[in-house]
Write a structure and sequence with these properties.
Structural class: mainly beta
Strand content: 35-45%
Radius of gyration: 19 Å
Distance between the termini: 43 Å
């Protein structure tokens, strides 16, 4: 599990010195997170509010949906080993952490990155409200941007979704004998 301090809003004002500590306890930002969106072939694209009145309004997402996070950011200074982490916590669920190494970037931008897709939990037991904290830090562990949002996992309209075709979801085959076993 990723240990993240309490959430604050995303930075929208970069500075040129990423290693100094600001008044909030977070590093002054070398990264300006400009946009964070959820992208899905079946649901479309919608922006996650970074700050302001819409940041507390949860989005409704259908169980089992496949979504990707896309982000746009600028850098106020060269940054080595930029990392994007998310921590998803649902009531009665184990926290799910995801960490993506983005690489090293020169000052400037904007840079646009789309992370690999992820299937949301599927099934009645997983429905409900989830809190998600996303943050960007560098290889030294200095945090440069953070945003928190909520979503509500709701039943899929029109019924269940087919599970993905991988070993974790594949049902055992019945009626077949394995070679070497009676």
């Amino acid at each position: 599990m990723i240990d993240m301090p309490p959430a604050t809003r995303a930075s929208r004002s970069p500075t040129s010195h990423p290693s100094s500590e600001g008044r909030s306890g977070l590093a002054e930002r070398a990264v300006e997170l400009m946009e964070l969106t959820l992208v899905s072939d079946e649901l479309g694209t919608f922006a996650v509010p970074l700050e302001g009145p819409g940041d507390a309004t949860p989005h409704e997402l259908p169980e089992g949906a496949v979504v990707s996070l896309a982000m746009t950011f600028r850098l106020g200074a060269d940054t080595d080993g930029l990392i994007f982490e998310t921590l998803r916590v649902g009531e009665g669920e184990d926290p799910v952490a995801r960490r993506s190494a983005l690489g090293s970037f020169r000052a400037g931008g904007p840079y646009e990155i789309r992370l690999p897709p992820e299937r949301l939990p599927l099934g009645r037991a997983h429905r409900g409200t989830y809190d998600v904290t996303a943050r960007m830090s560098d290889a030294t562990g200095i945090e440069h941007a953070r945003v928190s949002h909520r979503f509500i996992l709701v039943p899929r309209p029109g019924g269940a979704v087919e599970p993905p075709e991988d070993d974790a979801y594949r049902a055992p085959e019945r009626g077949r004998r394995r070679i070497g076993r009676p």
